[in-house]
Amino acid sequence: MSASVAIYRNIYTEDRFRQTYGTEDQSGGRERLRDRLAQRCSCSQVECVHLLHKRLPVCSWLPKYKLRKWLLGDIIAGLTVGIVHIPQGMAFALLTSVAPVYGLYTSFFPVVLYMLFGTGHHVSTGTFAVLSLMTGSVVEQLVPIPLALNSSSPEAAEFEAQRIGVASAVAFLSGIMMLCMCGLQLGFLSTYLSEPIVKAFTSAAAFHVTVSQLQSMLGLRLPRYAGAFSLFKTLASVMENVPHTNLAELVISLLCLAVLVPVKEVNSRFRERLRTPIPVEIITVIIATGITYAFSLDSKYDIQIVGHIPAGFPEPRLPALETVPEIAGDTVAITLVAYAVSVSLAMIYADKHGYSIDPNQELLAHGISNTVSSLFTCFPNSATLATTNILESAGGHTQLAGLFTSLVVLIVLLLIGPLFYFLPKAVLACINVTSLRQMFLQFQDLPELWRISKIDFMVWLVTWLSVVVLNVDLGLAIGMVFSMMTVVCRTQRASCSVLGRAANTEIYRSINNHNKCYEVPGVKILTYNGPIYYGNRSFFKADMAQLLGLTPERIRSREKALKAIEKREREAISTVEQGVADSSFSSKNDLFTSEMAEGEVQAVLIDCSSVIFVDIAGARLFIQMCMECQKIGVRIYLANCNESVLKILTSSGLMNYMNPQHIFVTIHDAVVYIQQQREKPPETNTMVWV
């Protein structure tokens, strides 16, 4: 059943609407601004408590902690994650090109610090494969170790100290960058790393991690390549040295993969049924260490083992700050990746469990975490994909789970660490590879991404190829630039369409997609779905000229007609002055209008509802369009302009070429006004009707 709608009200131009419903006292805004500034600068007990709760979130959630409801889940989740942190921390330390014990340190200090300052209830921080790989590339560039160096020699210890000094310097500088970003309220920068970029980057980085671990899995001692095409250089080196594979380490790797992959698949498929996932990594580490020690595999088959892991806490010391100028460029990329991954994970689980996070506070939390932990020989850290997923699925509720995670790592550091002396490095390499399962599975999202947005699919593909073919940091930069270019291209090629009116309504839609919407006779209603700025002004002008027929030939013919009318007007005036009336002349406008073909456009109405901003180039283009339309006898009207667009247009002098009363609140107000002007003289109280 269809129904007609009738609406009776005054026609509103922007000026009339502002006079009726606008703010009378414009100074109130300035007063409110002064009040807000004074309130922010004020210091009181309430403000201090609010600032404390904002900057130290543990003071907010800990007093509200539900002991009976949450404690058991936090204990189980924290202990489970702590057990996973031990093998992964040592494994990711190898990616960073430092000793495994530093991975244990990085699995302890950041967890405690994030528990105090973080806002993500289900975020687990620590070592992350992608960050470790990026940091390892920096370490290898600055402190390469000769292949023939004996691991037990004093020179090896000196090289190791230099390497962890560089890795800690990267963490320190990354933390300082995050703290500066927090001070400048730059938490929004993470939005420039879109979801396709992050997923493509982590998926491609997983290939780099896998290839870099092949030499450890095969028992080869090869140099580590960095820079462009490093993945292919490493792969070629591994293939060239396959005949020198240590068969014992190859067997260990195959056995570990045969155990880790199926059990991880079980953990994934039966995640909802299992109270806690099977800690297959730590079980594999214990068994492999015991077998290597019992059968002396390190001495019999020349298997590479972890070696000495000192017990106790590391002594605080400054990182190698003299390397800051050399690592600054790489650290920017590491900082962006760390923050983007951390905030993305925090937001995902915050949305899932119905709470909110503060991006700038996350900057503060990870900045403090990296800065302070770097003083205890830790390398860069962030939120981690695998352990965060385990923490949430194991029943964690709050950041208190981090306390139990750190207790597990602390026990290993103080008591159990030296027992991992005989742990084969091939086992840690297998743990590295199998921990990337989620990143490889991101390929499953590609068909859906292609179906939803082909542009986002291209962003994913370009980022992935750039990271794989070139390098991690350079590929990420290319992906970000390409993503921004797609945004620019979308604004440049925004669509311009003609609107028609749905019968018996005040609804206007594109006639291309709604064939039952009809154009208003004599009025061309246009809409542009994008900003008008220097980058797309030529496209906007071309689209408008095509739709309006603003060709140079037509403009010249209209100018000639206008000159002819002016000449006839002067002759008519001369005739009147001589006392003879010319009854054939009424007015220039009437005569010019009569010469226009019936059904030709006499008014152009531009719907600005989708124009989010206009720059000075766009405003000048509007002025040029007004002048050209006036030359062919067509008037321009505007509707649905937001305040910022209207302010720029008026400031640029558009009102010198356009009547201020031709700017309307809605399309229908303008259409009714135009029709009334054509049909009868304007009345004092014109009404909008449908």
TrEMBL record:
It is a multi-pass membrane protein. GO terms for molecular function: bicarbonate transmembrane transporter activity; chloride transmembrane transporter activity; oxalate transmembrane transporter activity; sulfate transmembrane transporter activity. The keyword Transmembrane helix applies. One of its GO terms (biological process) is chloride transmembrane transport. It is found in: Membrane. It comes from the Eukaryota. One of its GO terms (cellular component) is plasma membrane. This is Solute carrier family 26 member 10.
